[in-house]
Amino acid sequence: MVEGGRFNRMGIWEGKEGRAIQVFGYLFVIFAIIVMAYSLVLVGLAEISFWIFILGLATDLLVAFALASFVMGIYYIRQFRHEGIVPIREVLKTILQVCLILALFFTFMVAVDALGMIDTGIDDPEDGSDNDLEGLDLAISLVLYFFRTFLGTTAAVVVVMVGGFGLMGTLYMMEVGIIPKFLLKVQDVTAREAFEDKIMMWVFNIHSALDTETILLDEPSVEKTFPWKRFRTAVVWQILFSFVVAIYISLNPWLSDDLDFDRLFRFVSVAIVTVPLLVIPWFIHLRLGSRIKGAHKDFYLYTAMRQRMVGLLITAGTLLIFVRLALENHSPEEIIMNFVEFTFMMVLLMIAFSFVYFNFFENKLAMEVYRRWMKAKEEADAVREEEVSPDGQDTE
Q1: Are 249 and 268 in contact (CB under 8 A)?
Q2: DSSP 8-state code for residue 208
Q3: 331 and 200 Cβ atoms separated by less than 8 Å
Q4: 261, 334 contact by CB (below 8 A)
């Protein structure tokens, strides 16, 4: 039996990589069945419109995806904890410090509010109030509030980080196996007429007149400092994409006819976990400088992928129409408040996921992709040499 399962027999993955992808798939299916069964019992199918059914199904699948990512995150932490540019101990220490500061801040705000109420006599027991927050009672309440806030915030951040490890770990496994083969596919793509090649040219914005015979990659070295520039760029692009997705779904007039605004926004809040899967894969091409050699100017795949995705997702006219139609049915205050709440959680998630990727995964991914691409390229060149050899033997 080939180590790693059927995925490794495809000749794309090595070692236990294929097995990890299989396990993620099994977990996703199991969680999807459980979540959908729970939703079916909870809601039922009576008098459910088509769009409500589709939205509920999509939400269940996204929840199952998040749960599977969280479970796999435990495995990927064990596998990649020593790969961090910033050591994982320092990351945990920073998390605890931030959570401590937040807990102290919120406790201070609650204390100021409580003391203010006592000073103004609002909580005076003589006025019939049942609240006796004075002296020792107030101190005990604040201590308990501090510990609840600190532990709750820490637990929430840890859950997000573990989920981020699962999401980025799965993305790593997909990229490390697929990208070397993809780069070979790009080579000479404009000289082929197959339908899949035409699709690839459209997706990556490769002009038919471009000679794609030579693919170039820069040999990576291990980065010792955190790549803040790529990190910031990735976070900004994910935030922009998240806003576009939020507008297209929550303000879509065709969906809002059957679904209430709050339900759509709850769905968007879950759907944004997929945004890193659309944006982060660009950045390995930026790290490696993946490009097609041109006569006058090289064609960079990172720039091409970014331009194509922007063209697909951002159509300013459509977005403005959606916003205008939404304002006819909802007050500006309602829309703004929902977007403010959405933005806070979304930005935190994009920062956390991007940090996990660039700190723990990108260095190893760059090394592995380059090594496997060189190996695959040598094998492909050897096959070409055999094909052009008159006697069918290696020209050497």
Answers
A1: yes
A2: T
A3: no
A4: yes
Rg, C-alpha atoms of the chain: 26
Distance from C-alpha of 217 to C-alpha of 234, rounded to nearest angstrom: 21
pLDDT digits (tens, 9 = 90+) for 14-73: 778 888 999 999 999 999 999 999 888 877 655 567 777 788 889 999 999 999 999 999
What phi, psi does 220 have (nearest 5°)? -80, 155
Query: Which residue is it, tokens 């709050």?
Result: 262
CB neighbours of residue 191 within 10 Å: 11
Residues 6+ apart with CB under 8 A from 202: 308
User: Which residues sit opposite 216 in a β-bridge?
Assistant: 291
**Do you know the residue count of the chain?**
396
Has residue 3 got a pLDDT over 60?
no
Q: What's the whole-model pTM score? A: 0.84
Residue from 180, 209, 239, 184 nearest 368 by CA: 180
CA distance 66 to 60: 10
pLDDT digits (tens, 9 = 90+) for 192-229: 777 887 887 877 778 777 777 788 899 999 999 999 99
Checking if the pLDDT of 277 tops 60, the result is yes
Average pLDDT, the chain: 82
Tell me the C-alpha distance between 143 and 151, whole Å: 12
- The two tokens of residue 43 are 């809601």
Produce one character per residue of 330-348: b if its CB has 16 or more CB atoms within 10 Å, e if not. Answer: eeeeebeebbeebeeebee
Query: Residue 256 pLDDT more than 80?
Result: no
Residue 292 bridge partners (DSSP)? 215, 299
Distance CA 20, CA 166 (A): 11
Alpha helices in the chain (DSSP H): 17-43, 50-80, 88-119, 136-186, 195-203, 228-250, 253-256, 261-271, 275-279, 282-288, 301-313, 316-329, 332-356, 362-388
